[in-house]
Write a structure and sequence with these properties.
homodimer, five-stranded antiparallel beta sheet, 16 helices
């Protein structure tokens, strides 16, 4: 019996798509940079069915490309164009299996949409803090496989830090039950760490037990203006001392980012009369309540203003005010799209290295390409910048397109020279698979390959990604 | 040239100990349960020297047993009695290489004593939160290799969660430079996770870049009394809602623990007139200050008292008061030693499973051994209990000794049945190496062995431990 008939018999004919129109949504990535082909798209509804699919693929050495919400930014869930792979979508595995309030954990299947998990936690007055732009459509399986970051990493860490247990179908189809809800477990190698962030190249994550937190009583933001990134780095330390773990976001935006918003989103209220060189969104999550958070922000940022550490400040008066401030920050990517595109870099550095990196890389790029405009924004508290290169005038867009590879190279070389990472939160996928070889030591690459060979000796799990 | 002469030539004769008296301190573990022999004890002073030692050992297939402060509790750093291994002590590698205040990171060598790192952070008004009983003599290399837990895990996580980068000498002597200070880096497999908690079986951790935090302005504790562990679990949720991340410890102590303290440490002030069934130490780390913390504890625990959720409460009036409360909790292990020993269990469960586990396991043990007395205490907030079995009367000590293996088996079987871990924070070492095979699936054991083979194909790294 051929593989497709076999799979249809095993998990149901309607779960094995082969018609072009049915398969199409699974074969192109969200940003439409990658399109592949596949022998079939399968939609198993349980871990046992995933095991069935992978066992059969392993037997015939057929590649398996796991896919969640298909919102990834690096082509990590799109098959190649050989047409030989099976795309394994986890969308039908979307059950919340358990929510343990006393243990503050939730156990979810890989196909759960992130927002569904946030909502389930909120219903019990708990918080699942992972939060990112795609939360309405990305799945937790994808978040785990890319070790997603987002806007709350400063306080709660990346997806890895939120994960206590995993259930994984290994490359030979066996099910590893590591679905524990324990905060301490030192009984050998922590295998789950291998699958988190592996972008589906070592196995298929089918379920996870995740940490929850008491929900804060209020979340309040402020915007502060300063002349330099050095001042923003100093402000981060100042606000951190004052707020400690209540500080849950510290998001910088360059003047070019705010000017772009003014042009493309004139409906959004700009915080300051004149656009300052740098603006930061500071968020406090407070267990005392709104008044306490507002008071703490006013005192801390007021003192900073008084000594000239910042130039201006606006503290939100309410949760609604705070959401409006977040809207500024969150509208930058859309504004960039409206402006005709840009060359994106998702980079991280030590916080202390960021001011010099931005100054020197801006200068280096401007010297070579006098028509560019860096749109720099992101999670300064995590050392993670979205250092995206746009154009000063729209008629330079074709040149930007043409110089994309050179711009990438200049930026990534600078990141590497400063000890940073060329993929802070998006992963490698297909997009950065070749680049990374330039920056990682051959020893590290070879050690990664040794792990890959140990866990996936026939190389069927998501080939052509990461390694 | 033989290996010893070779090593002497390479790192200096005085760094290669072979005389019995010189080697003795490195050949017996801290609890004096394990004694081994070794061809030599070597004391390299740098990562390059560690690489030299491991390269030469690898060439001759000689086992390497890494050792830090030799304070481990499971015999993980003691060689076997074959006399063929080299003990590699990291004690001479105790330099703090860098402290980056803006990035809130510290880069340290493996032989740094934990307290040295805490002090270096404190000097810059920062906090390195890892804290445990052996902090005056354990080394960070050992903490990393055992993924040490301690008293602040509830808020800051285990050693793994505090680690951003590692420098490791691999089993063939190559140096992997993964010493990054990045909070986000999704560029392939997160190799450092493999070495953390591996107890030296995959390589020698030589240095680490660790996270620091803003130091809280005040740390204040309270003691609360309740009739049951169920009430304590409910209180944990209540205090968590009120304090959020300010809640940094939630440590329970059974009545038997406090009675033992009264007998063995009569100098310590008991908090309540009559010893309650359960007492909890609650700690808040507050960025507002002492008054805010005291007020929050009084309000939260006062409200709990009012509705009968707890039976009594004492809030510390100062940092000194708080330290006295901690002294109660921290004196329990010493009191147990004075009382003539006990059968220790370092177990973890989901927080929600703990009350039923303690009730049923107490009953099961008492039914079989009517002369025992469980001394139960530990980190309830992390689901981690030190479920130590002592005796009701001293004359039963020989029976306790004789029944140790059966008691272990009953407790660990119960932990496993409840989905828990038989080693929450101490690791496996030699002590639990055979036990773990009973509880981990053969698939998980085989996957661990596959990793071991991939990274240490000749099996020279700390053989006889973990796997």
């Amino acid at each position: 019996m051929d593989l497709i008939s076999d799979l249809r018999g095993a998990i149901g004919a309607e779960r094995v798509l082969t018609a072009a129109a049915d398969c199409a949504p699974y074969l192109t990535d969200w940003r439409r940079r990658y399109t592949g082909t596949a022998r079939a798209v399968v939609l198993p509804a349980s871990t046992a069915e995933v095991a069935t699919v992978v066992t059969r693929c392993a037997r015939e050495r057929v590649a398996v490309v796991p896919q969640g919400g298909n919102t990834g930014l690096v082509g990590g869930a799109t098959p190649d164009d050989s047409g030989t792979a099976i795309v394994l979508s986890t969308r039908r595995m979307s059950r919340i299996r358990a929510l343990d309030c006393a243990n503050q954990t939730i156990t979810v299947e890989a196909g759960c949409v992130l927002q569904q998990i946030q909502d389930a936690a909120r219903d019990r007055d708990l918080l699942f803090p992972l939060s990112l732009a795609a939360e309405g459509s990305c799945t937790i399986g994808g978040n785990l496989s890319t070790n997603a970051g987002g806007t709350q990493v400063l306080r709660y860490g990346n997806t890895r830090d939120l994960t206590l247990g995993l259930e994984v179908v290994l490359a030979d189809g066996q099910v590893w039950d590591g679905l524990r809800g324990l905060r301490k477990d030192n009984t050998g190698y922590d295998l789950k760490q291998l699958f988190i962030g592996a972008e589906g190249t070592l196995g298929v994550i089918c379920a996870a037990t995740l940490r929850l937190f008491p929900a804060p009583r209020a979340t309040i933001t402020a915007l502060a203006a300063a002349a330099s990134l050095e001042q923003m780095v100093a402000l981060l330390a100042r606000v951190g001392r004052a707020g400690g773990p209540a500080l849950t976001a510290f998001e910088v935006m360059s003047a070019s980012s705010l000017r772009l918003l003014a042009a493309e989103h004139p409906e959004l209220r700009q915080p300051f009369a004149a656009v300052p060189p740098w603006t930061v969104l500071v968020e406090l999550s407070d267990h005392d309540g709104e008044a306490h958070a507002i008071d703490l922000l006013e005192r801390t940022l007021g003192a900073a203003l008084e000594v000239g550490a910042i130039d201006d400040v606006a503290v939100a008066r309410s949760g609604a005010d705070s959401r409006a401030m977040w809207q500024l920050r969150e509208s930058i990517p859309e504004a960039q799209t409206r402006a005709g595109g840009n060359v994106k870099h998702d980079v991280s550095l030590t916080v202390s290295a960021i001011p010099a990196f931005v100054a020197s890389t801006d200068a280096r790029l401007r010297a070579e390409f006098d028509w560019i405009e860096p749109i720099t924004f992101g999670h300064l508290g995590d050392g993670n910048l979205h250092y995206n290169i746009g154009v000063a005038r729209r008629d330079a867009l074709p040149r930007l397109q043409a110089e994309q590879v050179r711009i990438n190279r200049i930026v990534h070389d600078a990141v590497h020279a400063a000890g940073g990472s060329i993929s802070a939160e998006h992963g490698l996928g297909q997009l950065k698979r070749d680049d990374i070889v330039r920056y990682k030591s051959s020893l590290e690459m070879e050690t990664m390959r040794a792990i890959k060979r140990a866990l996936d000796p026939f190389g069927i799990m998501n080939p052509g990604k990461v390694l």
